[in-house]
Amino acid sequence: MSSATENKLWVICPVCHKANPAGVRFCQHCWGAAINQDTTLTTEELAEATRHREEYLKRRKKVKIASISGGILALLLSIYLSLVHFTDLIYKPSESLNSSSRLGEWAMFRHSLDGSGSTGTTDVIPQGTLNWKFQTGAPVQSSPSVADGAVFFGSQDYKFYALDAVSGTKNWEFETGSWVESSPSVSRGVVYFGSNDGKLYALDIQNGRKNWEFPTTFPVRSAPAIAGDVVYFGSEDYNLYALDIVKGTRIWKYDIGSPAVSPPVIANGILYIGASDGYSYAFNALNGQRRLRFSSHYAVYASPIVVDKTVYLVTTNGYLYSFDGMARTWLWEHELKPFWLQLYAMGVPGIPRPSSQSGFLWSTNLRGAVNASPVISGDTIYVSLDKRIVAFNTRSLKKTWTFATDGTIRSSPIIANNILYFGSDDGKLYAVDAATGKKLWDFKTGGPVYSTPSIANGMIYVGSDDGNLYAIK
Predict the structure, then answer these.
(1) Do residues 196 and 219 lie in contact, with contact meaning Cβ atoms separated by under 8 Å?
(2) pLDDT in the model for residue 334
(3) What share of the chain is helix, strand, coil (3-state, %, to 5)?
(4) Structural domains of the chain in order of their starting residue, each with its CATH number
(5) Binning pLDDT at 50, 70 and 90, where does residue 1 land?
(6) Which helix (H) or strand (E) holds 52?
(7) Which of 95-109, 209-223, 409-423 comes out lowest in average pLDDT?
(8) In degrees, to the nearest 5, what angle opens at C-alpha 76 toward C-alphas 75 and 82?
(9) Region 162-167: what's the mean pLDDT?
């Protein structure tokens, strides 16, 4: 390079950032930009400035590419999460994930995973005659299950029992660390139940040998539900659990925000459960993905009922709700709805009338305290209210009959051959015609009947606070 070139001075265009000989008034490259003559560069300085400029442009290009890529990934992630949370395109519930007791058995609370409490018809209709009774050491509030020729139930004497269903003789017993009020479920030769010692147990039904136990923090009074290879149950530690039925290992859990006492039910691959915080929930049973958070305003301890894809639930103060079991809660629905209501009430222009919550079909106030799960048959749902059973038509939304007892009804009614069976605090087991509400017979035990009866092979099994399990034919 010649000495003249080395000593030549340059100025940088503020627009295109290209070099121009010092002294020119306008850029020779972009034709129009005025050149500032105050800052001149030698050839060496120009080379260094050019190098810095190229490095800056490379960094800027990388930042731009990273920003665009991050934006695309964020968009794809938001689309994916939206599809997961608000559609069934990614994780569709398995519609085949249902279960029911085999013919002649009552292998779980309420007979089947939809919580129906109904067996349809049976060959033999019980007439209210005692066949046998079995004495435990404390009240029996657990609802018995019947499978493989045996009846399974727990007692407040800390023990879980297996009896011969025909003779009432004891096959075996298993002692836990507290009361056993949970109703058992039987599947594939194993019986599952919870205890107030905070554990869910899995025992071999042949000998009562423990396969595994799963600890939670607080009592497990919820009746477990089994579908596929998973057992589902709630604990008073606020969690809903899904465990592998063979290993007893946790698959998923969900904090529902209040004690999980309501027995879960499963239909069409969706798990439904009530809670005491005024909400009921629907989850994809396979992965625990929440689908619906349904507000009932009051606590729901009773088991929901699913008919096809319609869900019925009743609150502790007698409100009966019906909602679409396939519905999904929209994003922040219950958090934003109060503000929407307030703006609408204030008459703010452009604010439309708030819609009903997701899935809502109808509700009615039956007016009474509810202490048990309802049962449904056809178009009629039967609900216990204080000391009464009320028959309510789900099409006309009207009561059809009422049957009164002399005590509070805490025993969930069941139905078979169009006959309702339920217990009462007055110490009796009742059989009532489901069509008319007329009493067919009653059976007197020695204490209040909290236990939900089970029926199998023409025999009714029910526990009493007198410490006995009764078999009534």
Answers:
(1) yes
(2) 87
(3) 15, 35, 50
(4) 3-86 (no CATH), 130-472 (2.130.10.10)
(5) very low
(6) helix 43-86
(7) 95-109
(8) 90
(9) 97
